[in-house]
Write a structure and sequence with these properties.
The complex is a heterodimer of chains A (131) and B (159).
Chain A (H helix, E strand, L loop, with lengths): L1 H14 L8 H13 L8 H9 L7 H5 L7 E2 L6 E2 L14 H16 L5 H12 L2
Antiparallel strand pairs in A: 1-2
Helix pairs in contact in A: 2-6, 3-6
Chain B lengths: L1 H21 L17 H7 L13 H8 L14 H13 L18 H6 L5 H5 L31
Helix pairs in contact in B: 3-4
The chains are: A mainly alpha (131), B mainly alpha (159).
Chain lengths: 131, 159
């Protein structure tokens, strides 16, 4: 009975977007953030939102992804349509670790002109997952 | 009489091959520009930021240069894993333009002579429209661009 209940709660968890906050990719950034900073506490969606809107020079994440990661964006240079980044609007997002890391590497460089820390990546994911 | 017609045919053949060679100074896109089977990695990675440009729009030498400089890709670091880079470079080289005879190997498709000639009638103001924005936005006017369809008769310039 206990076993069945546990299985059921797991299934319910899959169906609820709230439970999706436990993202394995974010967990790996959590481990990295602890390594980066022994005083690391947790990721913050508020800090993630701040990062999302940070403008360096001409670019911010929002330049291509619009003011909300729930919306479809457009590449600021090529006009290519970019599907929403928040998993609530696009369930394929944040499911492939290599892909997530590739885009962090590329876009942190594009916007911030430097690599992002594990703390920043986790915060950013927290923001996307909070949507 | 028979030999005369042979000579005529030969002359026509020579002239047409000469015109083909001279066309766009040898900077001619391939035929076809897109192979029947495309590589999934190429599609996924290139189309991440822009249209996955048909391999036949540039010669193999251009693609080779481009793929060896992905860390400086028109102002962006677009580098990929060595494995993915190799797979995509191979696909591009194998399907590059088969009609390009010039030694010129531009990095930009828009620098090819065939491209310039084909787009010379398009007014400068058109390129500036929000719906077009960039020369790299082929699909703005060529609806089938992602399939390698650039047929002149199907061009629709947006407002």
């Amino acid at each position: 009975m206990k076993q069945t209940l546990r299985k059921m709660s797991w299934l319910v968890c899959l169906a609820l977007p709230l439970c999706a906050a436990a993202n394995p990719i974010q967990d790996s950034y959590r481990a990295a953030a602890k390594q980066e900073n022994p005083a690391f506490k947790d990721f913050s969606a508020t800090a993630g939102r701040r990062l999302y809107t940070t403008r360096v020079g001409e670019l911010a994440c929002a330049s291509c992804h619009t003011d909300s990661p729930m919306q479809e964006g457009k590449h600021v240079k090529t006009n290519k349509v970019i599907l929403p980044m928040a998993p609530a609007a696009n369930p394929k997002r944040l499911t492939d670790a290599a892909n997530v890391e590739k885009w962090f590497k590329r876009n942190c460089n594009d916007v911030l002109k430097r690599a992002c820390t594990a703390q920043e990546k986790g915060d950013f994911m927290a923001y996307l997952l909070s949507k | 009489m028979k030999s005369l017609s042979h000579i005529l045919i030969a002359m026509v053949a020579v002239t047409s091959s000469l015109t083909a060679q001279a066309r766009y100074n040898g900077e001619e896109r391939g035929q076809p520009v897109m192979p029947t089977h495309v590589n999934a990695k190429w599609q996924q990675e290139c189309a991440g930021c822009h249209l996955a440009f048909s391999p036949g729009l540039l010669p193999a030498a251009s693609w080779k240069k481009l793929m060896s400089g992905l860390d400086k890709h028109f102002g962006t670091n677009a580098s990929l894993s060595p494995q993915d880079t190799a797979v995509i470079a191979d696909f591009l080289a194998k399907n590059a333009s088969n009609r390009w005879t010039s030694s010129a190997a531009p990095l930009r498709i828009t620098d090819g002579k065939w491209y310039k000639a084909k787009h010379s009638e398009v007014a400068a103001a058109v390129w500036k429209r929000a719906s077009v924005k960039s020369h790299s936005n082929c699909a703005a006017c060529h609806a089938g661009a992602d399939k390698g369809v650039f047929d002149e008769h199907r061009v629709k310039i947006p407002r």
